[in-house]
What we know:
75% helix; 10 helices; mainly alpha; 300 residues; two-stranded antiparallel ribbon
Amino acid sequence: MTIIQRALKNLWTRDSSILLGGFFVTIILIIYIWWPLAEEYFAYVDWNGAWWRYMDWLLLSIFGFMSITIITRANLKTDLLIVFVGICGGLAIESWGTQTNLWHYYTAERPPLWIIPAWPIASLSIDRITRALNFLTTKITTPALDLLSKSSAGEEHEGTTLNMSKGKTFVPFVFKIFYWITFASFLSLMLVFVAPTFDKSFTWRSLGLCVLLILTPTDHRFALLTFIAGSGLGYYLELWGTTRECWTYYTYQMPPMFAVLAHGMAAVAFWRAGLVLKTLWGRFSFSKNLQASAEQEPSA
C-alpha cells in the first residue's frame, strides 16, 4: 500500500460518502428550488464561445475546498450536531444582519433561506481546519517541551523541576495572551461597526452573547484556533459575496474587516453551543439510564 493510499484510507471514513452525498443533494435542492436565481446566473455565460471566462473560479475554488474538508475524517455522530447548530446559528445571524440593515441581499429577502445551508457546510469545514491547526500547533510545541524535559532529566539541579513546570505552562500562557488580545480587538471593532443599530434590541442581544462567550472561555487555545479558522474561511466567503454583490454591507466595503472576523466569532459561538448541547444530552441520557435501572429493580 502506497503512502497516498494510506493517507486516503485514514482521511476517508465510512461516513465521508454519506456526508459528501448530503452536501451535493443540498446544492442540487437549492438550485432546483431557487432555479430562477440559477437561471439568471447561467444566462451570463456564453456557452457557444469561451465559456470558461465566464465561470466564477473563486466560487468553484471555495466549493472544492469545502467539499474536500468536510469529508476528511467525517463522523456523523459529531457532524450532525455541527450541522444542526450551524443551521440554527446561521438563521439567527442572518436574521439579525438583514433585519437591522447591517447588510442586505440582492434579492431583498430578510433573510434569504437559500443562504442558510451555507452556514452548516462552512461550520463543518471550519471544524476540520481547526482540528488541523490544533494538530500542527501540538506537533510544533510538544517536541520543544520534550527537549526541555530530557535536558532537565540529565541535570541534578534544584531548579530543574521548576523549569519543566514553567515550560509546560508557557504554551497555554501564550495562547491566553493571544486569546485576550484577539477577542478584545474583535469586540472593539464590533462596537464600532454595529453602532448605527444600537437602537435595535437584536444588536444588544448579539453584543451580550459575544461578551458572555469571550469572558467565559472553556479552552483558550481551541477557541483561538477556531476563531482563526473561521476568519480564514470567512475572508474568501465574504470576498466572493461582496464583490459579486450577492450581499452588500451598509459600509459598502468589499469586504469589511468586521464581517471577516465575525465568521471567526460565529465559529466560536457554534462550537460553544455544541458543547452545551452535548452536556445537556449527556445529562438527559444519564437520567434516563438511572430511571430505566430503577424500573428494572425488583420490588421488595
